[in-house]
């Protein structure tokens, strides 16, 4: 399931993040790439343990915590600490690759299964040329270039790339989610059912039908979730 989430971050949060990005150190993104990805990865990343990266991580995670749609779509069990990257100049692209199935969280050392990938954009589309996130969806390639503060989630199993940035800098944050519900189709059904319940409740209030469907949702989650 590929899903965009609008307004994860507000204007004040984005301004603070951009200030931190200007102050932060940068290193080659190849240091964190897997065996296959390292051959096609050519970007920069903020060291995960620098003060600026820690503050940005906290801002980003607070933003997602405010969005019930993010929880509904991902049903997170574990979240890999968000990383900040930059594309531009001599470090401007990331070729076709599939993310590693298991990542080691640098802060906790926990193994995290990368069921879902997430990218949140920090730069406005008009600030740079190129830099589209191209995801090979079931219906064909999808090109994603969102406004600052918006995010996209997509299956960690998908082939994807970041197109070369030919002007300016593409600034973003990425991370992975291990879901309580491992199967993508089960997650999709639960998300669709949750949205249906919300729509029904908004239109008709707390009806017997809404209550019954809520029970069905939680019974399915109880059946499928691994916590």
Unreliable segments of 5+ consecutive residues: none
Through-space gap between termini: 21 Å
CATH-defined fold name of the largest domain: Jelly Rolls
Put simply, the count of helices is: 5
The largest β sheet comes out as: 8 strands, antiparallel
Total domain units: 2
Residue fraction in strands = 25-35%
- Average of per-residue pLDDT values: 94
In short:
The chain has 227 residues and is α+β, with helices and mostly antiparallel strands. The chain has helices at residues 11-23, 51-65, 68-74, 184-204, 208-224, and strands at 3-5, 27-28, 41-42, 44-45, 76-79, 83-87, 93-97, 102-104, 111-113, 116-121, 129-130, 133-137, 140-144, 151-155, 160-162, 165-167, 170-179.
Describe the 3D structure:
The chain has 227 residues and is α+β, with helices and mostly antiparallel strands. The protein folds into two domains: 177 residues, Sandwich (Jelly Rolls), CATH 2.60.120.620; 41 residues. Helices cover 32% and strands 30% of the residues. It is built from five helices and 17 strands. The strands form four sheets. Strands 1, 2, 4, 5, 6, 10, 14 and 17 form an eight-stranded antiparallel sheet that branches. Helix 1 packs antiparallel against helix 2 and helix 4 runs antiparallel to helix 5. It is globular and about 60 Å long. The two termini are 21 Å apart.
